[in-house]
Amino acid sequence: MITTMKTEIRLRKNELENKNLKSLYFGGGTPSILSADEINSMIDEVLKYFSFDKDIEITLEANPDDLDKNFLKQLSKSPVNRLSIGTQSFFEEDLKLMNRAHNASEAEGSIKRAQDFGFENLSIDLIYGSPTSNLEIWKENLNKTIALEIPHISSYALTVEPKTALENWIAKGKIASPKEEEQNREFYYLSDFLKENGFEHYEVSNFAKPGFYSRHNSSYWKYNEYLGIGPSAHSYNGFDVRSWNVANNQQYIKKLDAGILAKEEEILSQQDQFNEMIMIGLRTIWGVDLDSLKSKFNHQILDHFQNEIKSKIEEGILITEDNHLKIPEKHWFMADGIASDLFLV
User: Fold this and answer.
1) Among 53, 69, 97, 255, which residue is least crowded by beta carbons within 10 Å?
2) 264-291, pLDDT tens digit by residue?
3) Are strands 234-236 and 324-326 parallel, antiparallel or unpaired?
4) Which residues, by range, are in coiled-coil regions (predicted)?
5) Is 253 left (phi over 0), alpha (psi -120 to 50) or beta?
6) Nearest to 272 by CA among 289, 296, 294
7) Phi, psi (rounded to 5 degrees) for 68
8) Is residue 302 exposed (0-12), middle (13-18) or buried (19+ Cβ within 10 Å)?
9) What is the pTM of this model?
10) Is 252 in contact with 245 (CB distance < 8 Å)?
């Protein structure tokens, strides 16, 4: 697979307009199952066709159970300088419900081991609103996070995905369904608590100490171009083309071995581009750049937009600030619903 992905990098080297990379992200699936040598080999391949910004952020997604001492020792010698750890929770009951391979002890131990090997730029995922949790347990989760001195947190409400064990348990009455009211309560406690402890709430689900915003994800939220390599990976040209690789590993390998890109693409309509800008922008502290909207879209779209936002501004659900449209933070839990009301349909 590594050899095939290197082939894809070579074939797609001209797709990015900016050849100087500010971020490189090893994500999707479980990239930490790669050896440190394989990760270094991939980085070297990227450097054949691109240059790295002097302070490039190179992130590796990892599960806690993959971060043993030997792997971290080798990884600490690589250019990887940021870890995103799929912690989810520090409580056993939560982890069992989410069918995680690691336990509560491994969740904490992996973070401490990473820090021992010099990784200070850490991000963890935390899930709130679980039926196995409550506000008091959530508070303990957050206290543990602060005690571990983690500078970046991505936190999401538990959702029930179709055809999962959780959906089946709920249908059979073995466990309660997540309650939106409780998730709302835990979300706002999360926001207030982290801000009190020096974090900035810069996107609905993301919190960072100053200087620790995720550069990679921030580039998504600012509509920058990006190139995704590997099965299922997505790419965007920063304007009107999105593409994605086939998900099937064998098809991916077979096509690239024949020198054919294993991807599909779509041309985004004006409607698609508008809806994406609204959805993504309103989830961030930066909001939607009104000047950018005016330069990108015709007057019919802009007239629709002005009509739709008028009542929401009067209600205080939307505000304008420095020529950017934003949702006040107290309404962020409902950000996606507010944004969808503005969509072109």
Assistant:
1) 69
2) 999 999 999 999 999 999 999 999 999 9
3) unpaired
4) none
5) alpha
6) 296
7) -85, 170
8) middle
9) 0.92
10) yes
- The ranges assigned to domains in the chain are 18-221, 234-267, 270-340
Report the chain's C-alpha Rg in angstroms. Answer: 21
Strand order in the sheet with 241-245: 234-236, 241-245, 263-267
Token pair listed for 157: 């409400």
The tokens describing 213, both together, are 């915003």
For helices 249-257 and 2-11, angle between their N-to-C axes, nearest 10 degrees: 60
Architecture of domain 18-221: 2-Layer Sandwich (3.30)
Contact (Cβ atoms closer than 8 angstroms) between residue 244 and residue 234:
yes
Q: How many residues does the chain have?
A: 345
> Tell me: the pLDDT tens digits for 83-126?
999 999 999 988 988 888 899 999 999 999 999 999 999 999 99
Decide: 63 and 111 in contact? Cβ < 8 Å. Answer: no
Question: Tokens standing for 331?
Answer: 């309404």
